UniProtKB/TrEMBL annotation:
Coiled coil: none annotated. Pfam families: ABC_tran. Residues 260-292 are annotated as: Disordered. This is ABC transporter domain-containing protein. SUPFAM superfamilies: P-loop containing nucleoside triphosphate hydrolases. It comes from Rhamnella rubrinervis. Gene3D superfamilies: P-loop containing nucleotide triphosphate hydrolases. InterPro entries: AAA+_ATPase, ABC_transporter-like_ATP-bd, P-loop_NTPase. It comes from the Eukaryota. PANTHER family: ABC TRANSPORTER FAMILY PROTEIN, SKFA PEPTIDE EXPORT ATP-BINDING PROTEIN SKFE. The keyword ATP-binding applies. Residues 11-254 form the ABC transporter domain.
Amino acid sequence: MGRLENSGRTIEINCLRFTYPGIDGHPPPGSKPLIDDFSLTLNAGDRCLLVGSNGAGKTTILKILGGKHMVEPHMVRLLGRSAFHDTTLTTSGDLCYLGGEWRRDVAFAGFEVPIQMDISAEKMIFGVGGIDPQRRSELIKVLDINLSWRLHKASDGQRRRVQICMGLLKPFKVLLLDEITVDLDVLTRADLLKFLRKECEERGATIIYATHIFDGLEEWPSHIVYVANGKLQLAKPMNSVKEMSKLSLMRTVESWLRKERDEERKRRKERKARGLPEFEEQKEGSRVTGDPARALNNGWAAGRLHSTIAGEDNFVFSSNRVHRQLK
Ligand SMILES: Nc1ncnc2c1ncn2[C@@H]1O[C@H](COP(=O)(O)OP(=O)(O)OP(=O)(O)O)[C@@H](O)[C@H]1O
């Protein structure tokens, strides 16, 4: 497989701004964008690690890049095209998004198929037409798939391996990975990362990989991007990150997140001392963990409560209202 003809920019994010729609399908008036002023350019061959705390916006960014949320066409260009508007990006296999929903569905070429039925791994994998047999064999080997696995009986990790195999059958140009390796054993994860690295080095593919697991990743990324509260904090080649910090990758990211959390705690304390609600005005979709009664007392849910509230849980706040209880 040759390198991509266009060995230049593959992902261009220009001043991206995004707000999740409220229950009426529109961003609540006056709401702060969840993702704001986010710009990033990646080139063919780049392997970019996307890091940030829970709720920072990583999945949202990957879904926007994967064409799952609409933004203005100039804000996100993949291979020079708009990910949301140009559906051929996904159907051709040039753009591949592997995310969390994959536990339940196989997303292939833009279609999502439930995988609860009694079907063999072989039927799933060989059922996809127009695939290079050599690539298919390599993937089956890399992911150590037993073709006789019945998917409804397979373990989470086995099912995940089949799903990843399906997603990678077509030689993608841009791959978006949202924490898909959690179920994989160490050996499979290591072999998959090696395969993905080869895809970038030999074919000039571009990968963005959002993860909280840094085992075995020390030498994998070419770039690292750190996002906090929907804003870009840092985007650097891995070499520069190594020059900046003598710590391991995990310790480096841990130090960034610790600093972020300490600053946020300080801000909350100051707000409380000034008699303001402990949590800052909630951006549409911000996640708050804790006792909703406390949030209510702090003035958060002044409006109508849409969710059944019970004990400690996560809630999505829309301006001053709790509008959705997260599972
Ligand atoms: N469909 C939705 N509607 C409204 N808000 C949402 C929706 N999905 C996510 N959010 C909110 O957007 C924010 C960013 O979520 P996102 O899933 O992008 O974060 P993340 O960095 O991927 O987090 P994690 O590391 O926990 O996976 C969170 O505050 C979340 O509550």
